[in-house]
């Protein structure tokens, strides 16, 4: 799939990403959301490395099921959330509570 990088020179001042990417016409879109570093049983690993690896394994599995690969990705936003942060993981509060016990 042909995506065109549209840089104007702003993003490179603060990071290694593009200002914009133009997606070709008539391409399929696959949007993911809330893909945390939990195991498929709901277990949360103790370290950020394991959690990040789990999150990426989930993304790769989702892409594969859609017949896609990382080459089809346009944008990725990954966040590190501290379990003790108020309102972090509101919808998965049970994970936070289970972890803190």
Your description of this structure?
This protein is mainly alpha-helical and 101 residues long. It has two domains: 1-29, no CATH class; 31-100, no CATH class. It is 26% helix and 6% strand. It contains two helices and two strands; from the N terminus they run E-E-H-H. It has helices at residues 48-65, 93-100, and strands at 3-5, 21-23. A two-stranded antiparallel ribbon has the order 1-2. The longest helix has 18 residues, at 48-65. It is flat. The model is unreliable at 88-101 (pLDDT under 50).
Keywords:
101 residues, mainly alpha, 2 domains, 2 helices, 2 strands, flat
Strand content: 5-15%
What structural class do helix, strand and pairing data support? mainly alpha
Number of domains: 2
Distance from first to last alpha carbon = 47 Å
Reported for the largest beta sheet, the result is:
2 strands, antiparallel
What's the number of extended β-strand segments? 2
**Helix share bin:** 25-40%
How many helical stretches?
2
């Amino acid at each position: 799939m042909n995506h065109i990088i549209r840089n104007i020179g702003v993003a490179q001042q603060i990071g290694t990403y593009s200002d914009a990417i133009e997606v070709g016409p008539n391409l399929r879109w696959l949007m993911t959301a809330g893909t945390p570093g939990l195991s498929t049983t709901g277990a949360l690993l103790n370290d950020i490395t394991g959690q990040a690896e789990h999150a990426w394994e989930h993304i790769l599995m989702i892409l594969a099921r859609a017949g896609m690969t990382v080459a089809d990705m346009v944008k990725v936003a990954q966040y590190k959330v501290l379990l003790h942060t108020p309102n972090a993981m509101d919808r998965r509060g049970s994970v936070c509570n289970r972890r803190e016990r």
